[in-house]
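Reviewer 2 asked us to include a model.

Predict the structure of this chain.
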Amino acid sequence: MIMMKKMNIINLSLYRNIINNSRSIIIDRLLIILIIAYHCDHHNVYDKININNQQQRSLLSATTTTTIMVMADWDSWWTYEGISGPDFWGRLNPKWSHCSKGRRQSPIDIDTELLIYDPYLNEINIKGDYIDGKLINTGRSINIEVDQEKSIIITGGPLSYQYTLSNVTLHFGRENNRGSEHSINQLQFSGELQFYGFNGQLYSNWSEAKRSPNGLVAISTMIKMTKNMSTNVQLKLMINSFKNISNRGDIQQLNRLYLKELLPDTKQFVTYEGSLTQPACFETVQWIIMNKPLYISGHQLHQLRTSLKNDGHQDNFRPIQQLNHRIVRTNIINHRLISDLRLKYDLDEIEFNVDNTYNKQLCYVNQPVAYKASNKPIT
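Predicted model (structure tokens):
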């Protein structure tokens, strides 16, 4: 047995700012050594990272003369920028391999030309009036951990099970013209509010469900800046509370945040199978994106950013991921638009059946863009 003369405990999060601000090969490779030391048996570490230069080996050896145990605080390590940003999530931690190798990753761009109309998508049902929970500044975004003593149940739409609301996440950007994770026809919104629930019929908690099939649902609504329309009252209450959690790790109790007022008044949505948008990017999420935004003023957006110190000023959204031939379904339909088009085009273009359904439909999204969809059953 090899006796260890000295053991240093190193938290990787302490090196994040150094690495993000430095181009030094030695520092970068030292980081890789620390990561590999945590995940492997410490044999031939230099060979694993392909360091052949003797001078580099000598310098690195001088920094690792004692046995090092790396205690990786992975949750605080990842960021939205730099060497710990989205491009590197899947490389930093083998348990996050979905982030780089997954085929059903989120978020996506919703191309309205590719949407498939599904007449069997019913409206979303939410049982529960308001949220009690903890408002948390994670240093990357604002989260609400929902109190599970008063369950809020989500059913309907594309869901086959009951889902219990677990947490809420707010995404935004440095500028008003970006901030949402999903986009529509390559257009980003000022922000995005996401409501996550776990399958309470199959799994006992969030941690178990997020790794499991049919584990999670995410209901998303875009946040749009407006000068003319009235802003959302509940969203305003949330933002006003941010001044009390201005630093990373700050927590404040939040009571009676009325859920139905935070969700837009619409039964229309788009849905697809995707993933968590943060590590470990598990592909267990049924996404439901509502067809109407919440409205926010420019002043409230500025207040949102300036209430959060340091990390609060950065873009905290994951870049768009490849669709990879996934089907994106919708129940959006605009009968008025179809009626107008019947006067413009031959009836043969829209083939009505005896039961007054149609094979080709023109629908309308939250933009002046019409798109074609099929009402054939999804197999």
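The chain has a mean pLDDT of 77. The chain has two domains: 7-77, 103-112+123-327. We have added this to the supplementary material.
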